[in-house]
Amino acid sequence: MKTDLHIHTNQSDGSLKVEEILQISSLKGMDIVAITDHETTSGVTKAQNIAPDYGIRIIPGLELNTYYKNQEIHLLGYYRDINNDYLQEKLQQIRKERTAVTKLMLGKLKDLGLVLEWQEIENTASFEGVVSKSHIIYAIWNKTERDQNLTINWDNLASCLRPGGTAYIPYEGNPFPDAVDLILETGGLPVLAHPGLIDQSLTEDLLSYKPIGIEVYYGYWAQREEKITYFEELSRKYRTLATGGSDYHGFFSQVEIGEVSVPEKCVLNLMEYLQID
User: Fold this and answer.
1) Which of 107, 138, 162, 185 is deepest in the core (most CB within 10 A)?
2) Which pLDDT band, with edges at 50, 70 and 90, does 46 fall under?
3) What is the CATH number of domain 3-93+171-274?
4) In the prediction, which pLDDT does 17 show?
5) Do the beta carbons of residue 62 and residue 187 sit within 8 Å?
6) Alpha-carbon separation of residue 48 from 18, 58, 80, 90, 181 (angstroms)
7) Residue boundaries of the structural domains of the chain
8) Which tens digits make up the pLDDT trace of 187-227?
9) What's the confidence (pLDDT) of residue 20?
10) At 235, is the secondary structure helix, strand, or coil?
């Protein structure tokens, strides 16, 4: 059973359409994929409508930006059914708040000399989706494609937009405990996303709040196998569900769909928890 439980589409900060994601997944021989766009489930609905044509099962999902002890923490949520009015209202609110933060980040970049207008960024995002710092990068990429004389130091730009960077502004409107509670209250399973990318001193603290899952099988870490072994042990210690996936965002992703091997037992445990037949 080939599974990828962490995939983004252009409904949030991915570069590919839902149809393109499923085409690639089919070519890769995937059996089950989870669409986990940031703060929106519109990609899930699109995927569910066409997945049978590709012989692929969809596990509904999402990813939330949260904040805990001055750090940005990402939280995945997996569902049997995402058609929950309260969930959708909260997601809409978070999208508006995160988009407002992105506007402030653009202001900082302009102060640093970047010539870019908000409309150029907004044009790279989905109609109702969150506009994030990824869309700033997409807009700048589009600008360089149109103007071959325009050169960008991409490493410097990425540094500016990372936590602690000169243009970075944290989104503090969705504290980690509130995000966990939201997913649990609306019938989902919260899963700590890519824990190897956050301050390790916080990981056990985050897992101690309430019973949540942890993304063990992930590809962007240095010393990938050592990190996976460490988080497998942590998952056993806290008796929590383990998940995994590529965190695929499209053409610029370093890890391809299906490249991270997710044990079948993890998928079966997740489906049992969600009561998915």
Assistant:
1) 138
2) very high
3) 3.20.20.140
4) 97
5) no
6) 10, 6, 12, 22, 26
7) 3-93+171-274, 94-161
8) 999 999 999 999 988 999 999 999 999 999 999 888 899 99
9) 98
10) helix
- What is the rounded distance in angstroms from the CA atom of residue 221 to the CA atom of residue 227? 7
**What are the two backbone dihedrals, phi and then psi, of residue 27, each rounded to the nearest 5 degrees?**
-65, -30
**Helix spans in 112-242 (H):** 118-122, 133-146, 154-161, 176-185, 200-208, 224-237
State the helix-helix crossing angle for 85-111 and 133-146, rounded to 10 degrees.
50
Q: Per the structure block, which two tokens stand in for 47?
A: 């995927």
Query: In terms of Cα–Cα distance, which of 252, 147, 266, 152 is closest to 217?
Result: 266
The 8-class DSSP code of residue 131 comes to P
- Side chain identity at 89, as an amino acid letter? E
Question: Could you tell me if 57 and 222 are in contact, meaning their C-beta atoms sit under 8 angstroms apart?
Answer: no
Q: Choose among 238, 245, 179, 254: nearest CA to 36.
A: 245
Here the tokens at position 223 are 């010393």
Hey, what are 78's tokens?
A: 């997996």
* Average pLDDT rounded to a whole number, residues 150-178: 92
CB 276 within 8 A of CB 59: yes
Handedness of CA 161, 250, 252, 141 (dihedral sign): negative
Amino acid at 241: L
The number of angstroms, rounded, from the C-alpha of 139 to the middle of its chain's C-alpha atoms is 20
Residue 96 pLDDT grade (very low, low, confident, very high; cuts 50, 70, 90): very high
pTM (two decimals): 0.95
In the chain, % of residues over pLDDT 70:
100
Contacts of 219 (CB under 8 A, 6+ apart): 246, 247, 254, 255, 259, 260
User: CA quadruple 137, 140, 146, 147: dihedral positive or negative?
Assistant: negative
SS3 245: coil
Q: Which residues of 37-46 are buried (b: 16+ CB within 10 A; e: fewer)?
A: bbbbbbbbbb
